[in-house]
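Each field is set out as follows.
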Amino acid sequence: MVPPLSDAMVQQAPKNLGLRGVRRRLWGRWAAEIRVPRARSRLWIGTFPCPRTAALAYDAALFCFHGNNPPGHRAFNFPFAPRLYIDDHRRYGLTLNNVRAIAERYALDVGSFLFRPLPPAAPLVPVFTAAAAPVVVPAANAAATMVAATAAAVDPYYSNEADNTTDEDVIAAADRLLSMDIDEVAALIGIVQQGE
């Protein structure tokens, strides 16, 4: 339960944060409501713990009443949020209680997905590093040494050494590749194929 706010806190807190159909109640929760089309009444959707969830409830009710294209000055609070999938012929048959229940469920389900806290960042692990020094195999006892050398050899693309490549190097290489004409690309492919 959210504790009631003091009079000073209520006067300082914004009433709706610029979100349509959302206002703050005196006890700290956020209310969502919408005008019913072709009527002089409002549909009370419910109260929610945060303003974004209440705004999602308003968006869902707006979609239930008007579809993807709300008329006039009405607009979605989150135009790029996922929308409900309700056929037009079913949407026209919804009662006010259906709209309220759909909007409340949508707000809680989608809000818990869209506005969940981000997980803590994982530590960065270098992927590409400099190549290891070549391993020299003496002529005596070459078979046993060859197995050890193969196991000790490091793939130049996947090693644990630090990478000294800077962003400027990567951008310069990309610029060189993107500025090549077709003849230069064909010559480069020929060089790569010769090396294989």
